[in-house]
Every structure is written in structure tokens, then in C-alpha cells.
Design goal:
The chain has helices at 6-20, 44-48, 60-72, 91-96, 101-104, 134-138, 151-163, 213-226, 244-254, 269-280, 302-308, 312-324; strands spanning 3-4, 24-28, 53-55, 76-80, 114-119, 144-146, 168-173, 182-183, 197-200, 205-209, 231-235, 238-240, 257-264, 290-294. By secondary structure, the chain is α/β, with parallel strands linked by helices. It folds into two domains: 3-183, 3-Layer(aba) Sandwich (Rossmann fold), CATH 3.40.50; 197-324, 3-Layer(aba) Sandwich (Rossmann fold), CATH 3.40.50. The strands form three sheets. The protein has a seven-stranded mixed sheet, with helices on both faces. Helix 1 packs parallel to helix 7 (151-163), helix 8 (213-226) crosses helix 12 and helix 9 (244-254) crosses helix 10 (269-280). The chain is globular. It starts with a strand and ends with a helix. The model has no long low-confidence stretch (mean pLDDT 96).
Length: 326
């Protein structure tokens, strides 16, 4: 079984989908001849033809609109938005059309599109290239939101997203594109979109994270283990629908929870998780829930980027806080 980076696993999944289903098409800015800004679609135009993998004008509104129209007429478009920060012009199509098509037609039509976008910071990119807007998309009824944290999960979740009958926003943590290699078999097996992954088991505290923040959360868990503190580490993977059951079960066991995300604090997805735990696990909690997040500001330029992003030290501080609570 070959070892792959995340970008290679994504390309493998896209190729598998194109090969298996003639209704799958891919389009976006520079995804064709150049193979995408991060080379996620490298070689796919040459292999499957320009009618299946196509470059578009620099218009996110048009890309999203074409995806909705194609999906409504029976195709399975995979549209790329070059960076998450360029997503805003596409919101009209996502919120007003893609997410509502099933309801608007009382189930007569569905909208099986995937919108891919490189996501998050950590690569010293310029403005509008490092946003974490998952909570905004997860708030829209009818949209699914998925963020993988490893090559194998990227492969399986992307296949699941392409095969799903409803619209899926698939955010790809670009800091992880080439940071991790692991065995990935091109077997066409999809992973469930509505299931979180318990990456490690412990008894003292629950760590919840997703995307690239899994790296920092795992590093913190390693350091905690050296101190005699064991942690459950949950990778959400699917942010909408949210696997509340896995999180609740873990917190009922540990009694403590620290939620980690790169997005700003206010109205981030961590707040929804904390509210759910307060409603359903109050009698199990031994300490207040803590969030370790980005700040309520625009992602800064590269000199301050490392200060903005949560790291293992901030996670450890939050864990010590909940462990010491009496």
C-alpha cells in the first residue's frame, strides 16, 4: 500500500471518482492545465479530458452557480474555490440555492455538489488566503461541512462527499497538504460523513479538534501523557452534521473538555459544542469547558501568524486549568 501526502490522496480520490462515475466533473480556477494552485488536480485534464476537468474564469460566483446548475441537472460537480477567503462571492449560490434545492422542490431535486477549498493558516500566506470560515457554512441549513486531518481521511471523506446526494463544503487544511505521509489504498472505500474519529483514548480530559489543529492537540496529548494525564482526542472530521454522541460519551467518561479550533473565538463551532455539552452533560462535568482558539481579529500577516494560531502550550494551559478546577 503506497504512502501518500494529503494532496496526493485528494488527487487519488478525484481520479477514482472521475473513473467510476461519468457524471463527475471538476472545474475551478486553474484546475485544468496547471493542475490547481496546490496541484490537487495535476494530470487529471490530460487523463480524463477538458470536458471533465475544466478551467473557469476568475469568478467564484460563476463557479458556484455552475455547480448548482450542473448538480440540479444530474451531474456531480466538484468545484474548487482557490482559497477559503475567496469563498464569500459564492455564498449567495450556496445559501440561497444549493442548500435549499431539496426543500424548495419538496425532494424532487437534490444538489449533489462538492465545493473544495484550501483552508486555514500556517503557510505564511497573504490576506484572504488563511480564513477559517467553517462555522459560517455550518450555520446554513442544508449544507454539509467536512474537514479531514490526514491523507487517509481526506481520501475516504472526499469520496463520500462526491457520492452524497446533498451539497458538501470540503475544506482542506493546506498546512497538512504535504506535512504527513501515511498508507492510503486506492480501494474506493468512502468514510461516513457524519462520524467523528476517536484518535486516542484517555480517562482525564476530552480534547476536541479538527483539521490541522489535530496536530497541536496530539502534541499536547503526548506531553500530558508524560505528566500522567490521559486524554481522549476526538477529530470531528464532519462539522455538519456534528457527531454529538461521540463527544458526549467521551465527556461523560472524563468530566472535562477542551475544544481547539483555529477560527476566531466568538460564535466559532467550539461554542456550539460547549453549549451542547452544557445542555446534555452538565451532571458529568467536573470543570467548566475551555476553548483554545484563534483571536477575534483578521488572520495576521506572517510575522504574527504563529502568535495567532493555537499551539500545544496554549492547549496544555487550558487542560491544566480544567484539571485544577475544584
Amino acid at each position: 500500500m503506497p504512502e501518500c501526502t494529503m494532496i496526493e490522496a485528494i488527487r487519488m480520490a478525484l481520479s477514482r471518482a472521475l473513473k467510476e462515475d461519468p457524471d463527475v466533473i471538476i472545474f475551478g480556477e486553474d484546475v485544468g492545465i496547471d493542475g490547481g494552485v496546490f496541484r490537487a488536480t495535476d494530470g487529471l485534464t490530460q487523463r480524463y479530458g477538458a470536458s471533465r476537468v475544466r478551467d473557469t474564469p476568475l469568478s467564484e460566483t460563476a463557479i458556484a452557480g455552475m455547480a448548482v446548475g450542473a448538480a440540479a441537472h444530474g451531474l456531480r460537480p466538484v468545484a474548487e474555490i482557490q482559497f477559503t477567503g475567496f469563498l464569500y462571492p459564492a455564498l449567495d449560490q450556496l445559501a440561497n440555492h444549493a442548500s435549499r434545492l431539496r426543500n424548495r422542490t419538496r425532494g424532487r431535486l437534490t444538489c449533489p455538489l462538492v465545493l473544495r477549498a484550501p483552508y486555514g493558516g500556517g503557510i505564511k500566506a497573504p490576506e484572504h488566503h488563511s480564513e477559517s470560515t467553517e462555522a459560517m457554512l455550518a450555520h446554513i441549513p442544508g449544507l454539509r461541512v467536512v474537514i479531514p486531518s490526514s491523507p487517509a481521511r481526506a481520501y475516504g471523506l472526499l469520496l463520500a462527499a462526491i457520492r452524497d446526494p446533498d451539497p458538501v463544503v470540503f475544506f482542506e487544511p493546506k498546512r497538512l497538504y504535504r506535512a504527513i505521509r501515511e498508507p492510503v489504498e486506492d480501494d474506493g472505500m468512502a468514510l461516513p460523513i457524519n462520524k467523528a474519529v476517536l484518535l486516542r483514548e484517555g480517562a482525564d480530559v476530552t480534547l476536541v479538534a479538527w483539521g490541522a489543529m489535530i496536530t497541536e492537540a496530539n502534541e499536547a496529548a503526548d506531553q500530558l501523557a508524560e505528566m500522567g494525564i490521559s486524554a481522549d482526542l476526538i477529530d470531528l472530521a464532519s462539522l455538519k452534521p456534528l457527531d454529538r454522541g461521540t463527544i458526549r460519551s467521551s465527556v461523560e467518561k472524563t468530566g472535562r473538555c477542551v475544544i481547539v479550533h483555529e477560527a476566531p473565538l466568538t460564535a466559532g463551532l467550539g461554542a456550539e459544542i460547549a453549549a451542547d455539552l452544557a445542555e446534555h452533560c452538565m451532571t458529568s462535568l467536573l470543570a467548566p469547558i475551555r476553548r483554545v482558539t484563534g483571536f477575534d481579529t483578521v488572520m495576521p500577516y506572517f510575522r504574527l501568524e504563529a502568535h495567532y494560531m493555537p499551539d500545544a502550550a496554549r492547549i496544555l494551559k487550558a487542560v491544566h486549568n480544567v484539571m485544577e478546577f475544584a
